[in-house]
Every structure is written in C-alpha cells, then in structure tokens.
Amino acid sequence: MKQMPENFLWGGAVAAHQIEGGWNEDGKGISTADVMTAGSNGVAREITDGILSEKYYPNHEAIDFYHRYKEDIQLFKELGLKAFRTSINWTRIFPNGNDEEANEAGLQFYDDLFDELLANDIEPVITLSHFEIPYNLYKEFGGFRSKEVIDCFVKYAEVVMNRYKNKVKYWMTFNEINNQADGQHELHTWTNSAILFEEGENREEIIYQAGLNELIASAKVVKLGHQINPEFQIGCMMAYVPVYPYSSNPDDQMAALKVMQRRYFYSDVHAKGEIPNYVLNEWADKGYEIDYSDEELKALKGGTVDYIGFSYYMSGTVTTLQDKGGYEIPDYKNSKWLSNPFVKASDWGWQIDPVGLRYILNVIHERYDLPLFIVENGFGAYDKVEADGSINDQYRIDYLKAHIEQLKAAVLEDGVNLLGYTPWGIIDIVSFGTGEMEKRYGMIYVDKDNQGNGTLKRSKKKSFAWYQQVINSNGEEL
Ligand code: P53
C-alpha cells in the first residue's frame, strides 16, 4: 500500500492576533486587528477609529497564548504535531510600522516561542502578515494604497528573517492575500490591506493597486529571504474556494473560469512573477491607472515563491441560468453566485465539500507545478461541554477525516506534491470573520465565551485523541 511521505508535516495552525492577546504589552503597537469589535453569526464586526473604551475587542486578550504558550506547546507535543503554523504580529516588532528601530522585547518573545517549539520537535511555519498591519500605517499612509508601506513591510521582514534565520525555515508572506479580490467586503480590504474607503471611490481599482503593492513587497521579501538563508522555503498564502459551474451550459463554464481568474491573479503573480494578460487587459478596458515601475516588474520576476500555501474550507457555485436564484456577481455577463444543491453547509453557511479539496489540489498542481501546503482547513462549530467535562465533537472528526481522505487521494493517486497539512484553530481561538469564541475549530477546548467570560482553562476534545492517532500512523488510521 502506498503511504504518505515520511516527512509529511502534520500540524496545526493559528494566527497571532487570534491567539496571543497581550495586545498592548512589552511595547506592542496597535494593529488592524486591535480595532475590530466582536460581531456574531450574521452580524459584521465593526472597525473603530482607534480603540474606544465602551467597545469589546475580542483580540485584546484572545486566549492569552502570550502568557500560556509553554503549557499549550506541551499539549501540542502530546498531540504529536510536527509543525505549528502561527504568525509574527508585525506590531510587536515595529509598533508603528515605520519606526527606526525594532522593538527588542517583541523580537525576544518570538525567539522564546520558536525555541520552545524546536525544543519539542515542532517545526514553526510562520506567516509574516496574518491580518496584522500596524494601525499607524493606515493613519499615516492609508495602508497598502501607498508604496511607502512596501518598504515598511520589507524592512520588517528583513529584521525577522535575519533574527530567526536558524530557527524558522518555512515562511509565508501575506495571509489569504486574495480575500480582498473584489474590493467589496470592508473586513477583507481592512485586514488584507489596512484600507477603508471613502464614498464614491473606485474600490476595485484601489484594491488592484494595493494587491499589486503587496505582491511587489512579497517578491522583494522572497528574494531577500533567499539571500539571508538559501534554505528558506518561502510561500504565498491563498484562500482557495474552488468555484464550480452550476450546469454544463458553456456560459456557466466561462463564468466559473472568470470568477476563479479574479482570485488566481494573486497566485499567478506570486508563482510566475508576471501580471497576467487577463488582468492587464481588464485594467486597460476599464481605464485603470495602476502604478508600477520597470524596477517593480523586475522585482516580481526575481521573487517567485517556493511553494503555494493555502486555506481550504469550502467551495462555491456560479450560474448564468436566470431561474436558479442567487445573487449577481460582476465577473461574467449575467452570472450569479448560488448554493450548491449537492453539498451541505455548516451553521455559518460554509459549504462542506471534501472532494473540492482534491479537486483544487489537482488544479493548482497543474497550474503552477510547485509544492503545495494546506495551511488551513477545519470545521467551525458550536461545541457542547458535557456534565463530565467531555466534548464529543464527532462532527469535527467527520469533517477532518473526509478531507484527509481526499488529500491522500491527491497525493497517492494523483501525484500532487504536498508538504503538509495544518488544520485551522488547533486550539480554540477568536474567529476572524465574526470575532466569536464560540465558533470553535480546536481539538483543544478553551473555556471562554463570546462575551469574554471564562477561566481560559484548556481541555481535550474527542478529536484530540483521534488526530493523535492520525499523526501517529502517518495518516493511515483515520
Ligand atoms: P473564521 C473566508 C474564506 C476562507 C477563509 O475563519 C477565511 C475567510 C475569511 O472569513 O479566513 C481564514 O474564523 C483566515 C483565518 C480564519 C479562518 O479562515 O471566520 O485565514 O484567520 O480564522 C476561519 O471562521
């Protein structure tokens, strides 16, 4: 029987702002995540102008990993994690984003964290910006609208890549850089680019500019990183939501292709180092004046990524048929986004589609011929603590099992080169989309509710022992 590669990185993933807390400790500055209030299922998070005393900001304390990481890493070790994906919070290192000097206390925190992981044989996998941009860079420059912020990011990356060059091998630049793609969702343009819009601005054009600025920054960092340590593996990080045509109508195929191109723009530039024709033509047709120099085009070419990191949670569906319902999207004439009648959805409406993971692994493998890394996948759900303290999250096991079966098919049957699998929110954390604690992904439960009450005590869910066995058997026993 074919087996998963010996060095396959079974792991778990989180992000600094969703786990650490300690939002104003040891010299840390305010980040974009620190001004996001708690929303709820169906209610958007608010982005406030600075920090307002009457509001609740769930990321300020999060699960207090900042002070509890040692005990949490002991649980990760017991679980058997070979890799742990987190991010460096930019504002611990450069509190304002454009400070002259880096903040030594912030650098020391990540030294200690990485040492602790390595001492427990856990490989750190590090994102440089996971929705954590210094708030000051929004105030001073309007976020990634500005070319100035490219230099701030490159300087920050250079400092941390130098500092941790013997501790961290796997890096990613911008988390889910394509979330912002259509420019329409405030939370996404804020967290990807630190951009808020004025009335009447052309959002699409501005987001193309900001996205390109990030791609240039990323490429410069990839080049620099390889100079700092040629062993570095530096990837991009995409949110892949494969979009299917609803029917075999040729227009539905084109609609699905066009919706995907808007997202592929980002990984195309990351992987191929060039702005694709379909985007250059769109800019010309719409009269967009996107600012880039020859020097920047050269930078793109010189900083292509080593691997494609991506999240996978769900798939989507589009149609041009007019009698199926759904809501209109701009990517192709008369196209509408609708739910897929062949798959079920989570309580938050995320469509559950394990086969979609195998599908997208194949598509991306064919498109780029690069190693792939699933750095997020998981099931956000309400968990119930039983009277005896146990948590029987069989639904989470079912979700993860079904997805691991499909990733195994992609590797063992389809020949996809996959570096690892780090399921999201290995320990319960603050939800990004809603700011809730009770949208839980973890195999480790954290006693805290949506209002911020709870002891923060950690306990193992049923999925803990299950995942332990998956890792132990290198994916054989599901
Ligand atoms: P929450 C959309 C589609 C796929 C992944 O999300 C997404 C999003 C944004 O909502 O985000 C990623 O916590 C993101 C994580 C986030 C995770 O998915 O809203 O990288 O920071 O927590 C899950 O359920």
TrEMBL record:
One of its GO terms (cellular component) is cytosol. The active site is at residue 376. GO terms for molecular function: beta-glucosidase activity. This is 6-phospho-beta-glucosidase. Gene3D superfamilies: Glycosidases. Belongs to the glycosyl hydrolase 1 family. GO terms for biological process: carbohydrate catabolic process. The keyword rRNA-binding does not apply. The keyword Hydrolase applies. It comes from Globicatella sulfidifaciens DSM 15739. Keywords: Glycosidase, Hydrolase. It comes from the Bacteria.
